[in-house]
Amino acid sequence: MTIGTNVTAYKSSCIGIMIDSTTYTGEIVKINKKSIVVKFNHILVKSGKKITHDADYTDTVKFNYWKTCSDGRILYRSEANLYGIITL
Length: 88
Known about the structure:
6 strands
């Protein structure tokens, strides 16, 4: 993981049988010991399989270290999980 690495943040929710999901893409602009800062440049929102929003998106968000999985993946999540989770 280095500055400039492209990352994807993902969050979803289930409403009945439909899954609403949001995917943010951007790049890491700052790395700290227990957090990363990501500058987003795109957003994709889906309701089920239908794309409801696909546009440029500019925001900078801090993701805090959450945990390391048994398979070596490192998970970061945003404050109150508003922007979802990044897996590295």
